[in-house]
Automatic annotation (TrEMBL):
Protein name listed in UniProt: Chaperone protein HtpG
Family in the record: Belongs to the heat shock protein 90 family.
GO MF annotation list: ATP binding; ATP hydrolysis activity; ATP-dependent protein folding chaperone; unfolded protein binding
PANTHER family: HEAT SHOCK PROTEIN 90 FAMILY MEMBER
Binding site for ATP: E32, N36, D77, M82, S97, G98, Q120, F121, G122, L123, G124, F125, T175, R322
Source organism (scientific name): Hymenobacter rubripertinctus
CDD domains for the chain: HATPase_Hsp90-like
Gene that this polypeptide is encoded by: htpG
Amino acid sequence: MQEKGSISIHTENIFPIIKKFLYSDHEIFLRELVSNAVDATQKLQSLARQGEFKGELGELKVRVTVDKEARKITVSDHGLGMSAEEIKKYINQIAFSGATEFVEKYKETDAQAKDQIIGQFGLGFYSAFMVAKEVEIWSKSHQEGTPTAHWTCDGSTEFTLEETEGEHAKAERGTDVVLHVADDSDEFLEEARLKGILTKYCKFLPVEIEFEGEVINQTKPIWTKQPAELTDEDYVNFYQELYPFSEPPLFWIHLNVDYPFNLTGILYFPKVKDELQLQRNKIQLYSRQVFITDEVKDVVPEFLMLLHGVIDSPDIPLNVSRSFLQADGAVRKINQYITKKVADKLAELFRKDREGYEQKWSDIGLFVKYGMLSDEKFYEKAKDFVLVQNVAGKAFTLPEYQEFVQANQQDKSEQTVVLYTTDAEAQHSFVQAAQDRGYDVLDLSGPLDSHFIGQMEQKLEKTTFKRVDADTVGKLIEKDDAPESVLSDDDKTRLTDVFKQAISNEQMHVQVEALSPQDAPVVITLPEFMRRMKDMQRTGGGGGMQMFGSLPDSYTVSVNANHPITQRVLGAEGEEGGKLARQAFDLALLAQGMLKGEALTAFVKRSADLLAAG
């Protein structure tokens, strides 16, 4: 006997909402139907384990087939099956008082309510109408003696449901969902398109999925296994399966927790070197082995978005279309757990294999510094294993380095001064000058180091950082035994005037200083705060730092009062003193890589003339 009826009361607008409002990405219809088939299969397995189903399980594959000529896609399972009464209960009764209430539920800010809509109301099945003009269900229950149920709906709220025997009945238990593909959905009749969808969403489902005679999934991916069952080769092979063209990972973290939330997965540290390769969306989120999204910014801390791998959790709340995460307390706990696990893994590597950890530092340093800058709890752990390296390549922890330089690099106010370079080659003369004084120089040339320096100055007591070319070497670390000038005040004034006239540049501020005779005759520096602001602005400092990036450079020209050349400048007659001053100034420009164009040409010619004159 055939039954006709309406799917629910007051739902005349439900299908347009499903098609246009809920599911913006039509391809997920296949994910939903295959997931339902897998659920039906697993429920049967569960009943069998509990002794409630005593029949033969047989082959439990889910099969997806396409008939292009007939314009049909079929998803078949050999699972629990449904009787006509169960179809009426689970398919027809979408429990809404109306479409308006449904939309309001979806728009609520309460993540839990939104999370429950698909599972509670069975809307996953109705995603089929995004691509189908008619959907049929042929289902035979696992309960003996139950006839085949046949349900048909054309996308309106009207349906037909009948029990059938004989030639049209299913021979075995299970469900076939048949989609009669709409005229505007031809793409889903192409085998390659369907296989691509299945590979994307169903690659790791726990029941075999067969498409056109080929099983497309692994039912037991390695994140579902215990670490003790796995070898390093297993982890590396899985990584290469996820990212076929990537270098092998540095190391990995196997996540496995069942309280206070369920979470499994594997996070890999890729090789990124010193470049801030923001290749995000490399972590895949699954829910019970169904691929959901690679937009995991709420689940994974910002600084770990550079990691690769898989996270699987049924406890992550999803919105009604399962495509976007909803931030709530559970997500925050998962976020904190992942942060802790990463910090613990790095600390373990540092403790167990300091040498190996140092070798990996050029790759992992970016993660560590990013984490310290963005997460206070991570900072508290990472401050014990973050490394800094000097220009000679020797690595130190922060406490080690403070102890290393404290005796020699304390200024007269007992501040420890950490000298650093952002480009050891370009700033070589300044690095050399500092080393000649017995000072050590750190290499802080990484993309986040300008921000890292600022954080270290806030966190480390009585410690300041100065770029090695930010001032004359004597002023970088001011001591009580600073040299005195051999020049009188009148000589200083006259020398200042000669250099100002020779330089003739308002951005160059001349001052005569008492430096060591071994220091350069002229040193050009950009004040530390200006350099730092510009560095931070270039790497995304934002806010008030933008103004410093656009300000004209304002340099200090320090003339060494105690250098022999200054005596020659003062003793020269006529234009000769100006030529010598300009030559000394150009040498300082050359040391900073600032001598270019016409000025460089004039310097070369002047140098040749001075050499010819003996």
